[in-house]
Every structure is written in structure tokens, then in C-alpha cells.
Specification:
Helix content is about 40%, strand content about 20%. Strand 8 and strand 9 form a beta hairpin. The strands form two sheets. The protein has a seven-stranded mixed β-sheet, with helices on both faces. The chain is built from twelve helices and nine strands. The protein has two domains: about 60 residues; about 210 residues, Vaccinia Virus protein VP39 (Rossmann fold, 3-Layer(aba) Sandwich), CATH 3.40.50.150.
Length: about 290
Amino acid sequence: MAVLKWTTDYFQEKGVSEPRASAEVLLAHALHLSRLDLYLRYDQPLTPEELTRFKALVVRRRAGEPVAYITGHKEFWSLDFLVTPAVLIPRPETETLIASVLEVFPPKTEDRRPKTGMPWGLEVGVGSGAIIITLARELPHTRWVGVDISGPALEVARENARRHEVSHRISFLRADLLAALKPEPRFDLLVANLPYVPRPVFEELHKDIKEYEPREALLGGEDGLDLIRPLVQAAPVMLAPGGWLALEVADGQAEKVAALVEETGKFEQIDKIPDYLGVERVVRARRREG
């Protein structure tokens, strides 16, 4: 399809990131096809209406708007999530957080607490809901509370929970970190992918990210730990003995965050887990029994 090659070359010339993938996803979206189906009709010319739709998408991408915001969708853990400019776009490295939880929180976790019924999980900073919804699907024996300070983000998360048929097991709350929750050890799992980008790094982010994705979902203060630090300090009060804490962190932060967890004196088995690029992406720890 000549238009695909032309668009790829055009994006490359204009400095658009991932030019080939951007062209493929946008063309498939304009034609209401999957990327695979796109190649099944590779030699079929576009109608004038299809070409007009596609050109409008190309203009938006050329300006820097992320593909996920243009299409309104992003795949995560092989699931399709709705995304809007109110939420951070789910990233592949965040799948490390999912995998790290599933390593220690298998489907039979409920056997550990037979008197209390379903185990409870908590996510702080749900955004699109990609993490909490994926874990709710992977762990069908669990119930969840999801907290976010952004009302528009929670609306996106609620809609994604409905689409993936887990809304009956997730309660969403609007709050700043743990402010809306009673401080008691009721949760068996606490996960978070909070804003962790240090200010100097934020200032150097690519235009696609810095100018389009929500600043409040990215910037974590001067050292990136403005929200992670208080969450780590409060986590022991919220976790049941034997419960797990799992936090996504930025490149270079794992050692500092692991030290913060250690300083509480309430955790053991503190691990730093690398993502697919070898970056220590997740800090995971178990709440001591005593």
C-alpha cells in the first residue's frame, strides 16, 4: 500500500517517533481494520472518504499527539484499554509490575486467610485502570480498591473495568494517596505506579509525552519520590501481615526506594525486579508477620 510507505517516510522526515508503527496503527484505525487485516488488503486503494479520514489522523500525529490518544485505545497485557488525555498511556515496562505480583500472589492466595474470605488488593493512582483491571482479571478470587486524585481518570478506569467485566470486584475512590482510607491492615496487596519522573528528566522528555500526557501523572518532584516516599511510610499500616507491596519506579530509583522500604522496619524479602530492558523497574516487599 503506497500510502503506508509514503506516510512512514513522511513521519521519519518530520522526526515523528516510531514512524512505521504510527503509520500502520493510524491507517488501520482509519479503515476500521486490525493491523493484520491491513496487510490482507495491501493492494486495495483507499476511497476518497478513507483517504480524508487518514490524512486528518496524520496531521494530528505530525503535531506530536500520541497515537493512543488519536485512536483512543492502547494494548496492555494483551488487553485493549480505552485511553484519553486524562490518563497516562500504559507502557510495556509496566507489565513488569503485573508479572512481579503474579510471582508471589498466585490464584490460591485465599487459602492463606480462610477466615476473611476474598483477599483484598489496593492500587494507589489507578489512571486508566490498566494495572488494577489486569490484576483483577488474572486473580479472579480478589476484590480491589482503586484510588486516584483525578476524577476524569477515574471515569476512564470505571469504563475500562466495565468493558473487562471486573467492575463488580473493584471500588474506585477519589482521594489523595491513602487519605480516604481508614488506617487498618485490611489489604493483602498494595500496588502503585505513581508519578516518579524527576523534574530535570521531565524537562527533557520528548514532545509527545511532555506536551500531551498529564503532567500530574508524570512529575514526581525534584527527585521523583514526592509521592512514593509517603506511600512507603504509610503502607505498613494498610497491609495485612504477609501482604505484598509492589511499586513501579524510574530508572535509577530502585535502590533508593528499596532503602525507604527497609527503613520502615516492617518489610522483608525486598526485591528489585528488572524490566525487559534490564532496568530495575519494580520494588517488591513482603509485610512482616510480626
